[in-house]
Write a structure and sequence with these properties.
Layout: E1 2-6, E2 9-11, E3 17-24, E4 32-38, E5 45-51, E6 57-59, E7 67-72, E8 77-82, E9 91-98, E10 117-118, E11 122-126
Parallel strand pairs: 2-11
Antiparallel strand pairs: 1-3, 3-8, 4-5, 4-9, 5-6, 7-8, 9-10, 9-11
Length: about 130
């Protein structure tokens, strides 16, 4: 499974960005896609997870109500709509795929240990 993120950039506080994660590869099978973010010097944080089969979702408390994850099954693409951006949202954002079917619940999908494929990331910076 190969994952490619896009959509990062510079955003003013209060504005919106939409990140995309496109999955590709032979025998493309995965249970969940997770979004994570990381600031240099800090641990990677689980932001959101979506079950690729039933579409159920989970969010970190820090983004709940502001971020929305969705999927386009036919295009093997997952989106992360980020609204009301805050300075603390500035980070490298990474998507990850669980091809081992280990993400039993989407809440568990906020933990990076269940994922076995990762994208290279896309950077979100703020202009403040």
């Amino acid at each position: 499974v190969q994952l490619v993120e896009s959509g990062g950039g510079t955003a003013q506080p209060g504005s919106s960005l939409t990140l995309s994660c496109v999955a590709s590869g032979d025998g493309l099978v995965y249970l969940a896609i997770g979004w994570f973010r990381q600031v240099p010097g800090k641990a990677r944080e689980g932001v959101s997870c979506i079950n690729a089969i039933d579409g159920s979702t989970a969010y970190a408390d820090s983004v709940k109500g502001r971020f929305t994850v969705s999927r386009d099954k036919n295009q093997h693409t997952v989106y992360l709509q980020m609204n009301s951006l805050k300075p603390e949202d500035k980070a490298g954002y990474y998507c990850a795929a669980d091809s081992g079917y280990k993400v039993i619940t989407v809440i568990a999908g906020l933990q990076e240990r269940f994922y076995n494929y990762w994208g290279q990331g896309t950077q979100v910076t703020d202009s403040s």
